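Anyone? Bumping this.
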Amino acid sequence: MTDATAPPPSAPGPFHVRGALKEAGLAAFVMLGLSLALIGARIDDVSGGLAVRWRPFDVLAAVVVAFLGRLGLAFLRAGRPAPVALASGLSCAALAPLLAVSATGGGAADWARTALPFSGFAVNVLVLVVVVVLALRAGLAWRFGARAGARARAGAPGAETMDRLASVARRAAVHAVPVLLLAAVLFPFLPFADRRILDIAILVVTYVMLGWGLNIVVGLAGLLDLGYVAFYAVGAYAYALLATEMGLGFWLCLPFAGVMAALAGVLLGFPVLRLRGDYLAIVTLGFGEMIRIVLLNWYEVTNGPDGISGIPKPTFFGLPFVRSPPEGTESFHTFFGLAYAPIDRIVFLYYVILAMALITNQFTLRIRKLPVGRAWEALREDETASRSLGINPRNTKLTAFGIGAMFAGFAGSFFATRQGFISPESFVFIESAVILAIVVLGGMGSQVGVVLAAVLLIGLPEIFRDLQEFRMLAFGATMVLIMTWRPRGLLAHREPTIRLSGKGAVRR
Amino acid sequence: MLEATGVETFYGNIQALRGVDVSIRRGEIVALIGANGAGKSTLLMTICGNPRAASGRIVFESRDIASLPTHEIARLGIAQVPEGRRIFPRMTVLENLQMGATVAEEACYEEDVERVFELFPVLRERQRQRGGTLSGGEQQMLAIARALMSRPRLLLLDEPSLGLAPRLVARIFETIGEINERQDVTIFLVEQNAHHALRLAHRAYVMANGAILLTGTGRELLDNDEVRAAYLEGGAGKTDVERGGDV
């Protein structure tokens, strides 16, 4: 089956078949060296200990696949996509049904499994993906003229394609934003939006909001904050304590939690005013840990590692989402005369966080056009020059820390009310790292980029939970791939904040 | 307008200024020339409060500004074009100008933009371009334009000719003269390019080893043998004059 990838040994012409064969042979040799130990020997649990099981056919398959794949690439590079397209297309057609059959049960599956190149299911899927990509590339080149493609690649390597991609994305974003927004609003009513999908969506939107909040600090003001989760924690604990100790509701506590977090942000801001870059990052990292450790050890107030449980759920203008409200009160479904459905509460939570995230976004977009927002950007670009232009760096930085922290506080209280239980466990460093990764991968300062990155980094690992131990591997690989292909983030683009207002006045 | 007396500035333990006295009168162009490391830029930065003067007085319009923070000095009507231009590279030309207008009245903004565009027409064409994509000369123009957006009464220029082609140097100096004359901006100019600076300036100071060595009108210093030997007939200075002096 994989032998079908072999391009017919025709069409030599100016193309050096020997060179290509040599290249492919080298790739195969490297693959042999890599796969011999990694794939060839497998340690199995047998009764009485471990045993090594040799898998020579898998090694052979790996070497053959590497050889053929490399040969195909060489053909593509030489502008001869036709044989590659045919061969990889054929092998796709052979591999896909075999894979499908092998996933079922019964005798046919056994036969399919022996016919597939590798014994591991996931590896076969990977091979199929590679072959499909090869087929698509070859097919496109065949269809739209390989020569032009090859010439373009030789003329402008990398840079131009990157710019083209960014500008395509920019143009697409203009139309995509309303569509995405509509999709986000209608999301709970889509047929596949069950409880699990909605829970993932809520999580993703929470991180989108956190990403947008951190974007104010990192993307706009250029202050590298590695302890952002601390403010998330402050907001969560502020709401949890107010609600459980004093019986206040979510909506009443929300602004208070934001204020508390903002105060924490300003508190952090003061000592780090004079620090920049790496040094600032280290101190913020320390601050994040400090908050967590205080939460862990201040047992009388925070209940330490046991956390706070029984945090009340938010209400819909005072109407709780419960099946049977206490005597004399109404709940959401009785008030609107609906049948009780537990998913109502989830949908409501989804809309709450969506609204909060959109407010964060709008806030950021607007503040960029105000003097303080522009001062953040100027400070990021050049602090000395900003000062000599009359910008007060202290106040400007403190507002950035404070406002960024405030949004984390809002998100934190949402987190508390959604979970119903919080403990210091939820606010570890890796959370800060993930939020920062969302901002960086999205492209610093790009609002749409944050959404993409959050879906990628939070949504995909949740959806691919079935991959189990490979989940984090996929996570890491995603990050490496993004940073390789788009080193400045998915959508690295900064929208200018001013154009000349009066068309006649300043324009020629 | 600006009176500095006995100014001393340190970088850590190293003394950069050793009791400098400088006085600038309203409407003047005053040049400060001297070799590398003489303390010219330090004096300019000290006037802006970054670094602070360790001792001495700096009086601007009868107010001691030696202990004020930089951003408050900027609000008093002193604008600075820092060495190396330091424009905001990722912000557009127009955004750079708007940052310059931070301390200015909002109502004058459009008028001020129009004014600097008239001074530097190339900036009008480039208004939507990012600052970092401009050429060196255009960046220098942008830096000067940005400083002018705050409607300063005193403009401090640190090496406006640095890294520019000789033809552009002449053009920049011409514009500086224009700003001084037409817009009633007093100018304090730090320059390596002594020839150009002295021809433009009403008065000048010569600085060496953190102290003022000589002072006089631009003409006097141009004719002074010592100055000629030290700053005008050195290798770099001379070729500059030959190539771009009288464009």
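Late reply, but here is one note on the structure posted above: Residues 1-12, 148-162, 502-508 of chain A have pLDDT under 50 and may be disordered.
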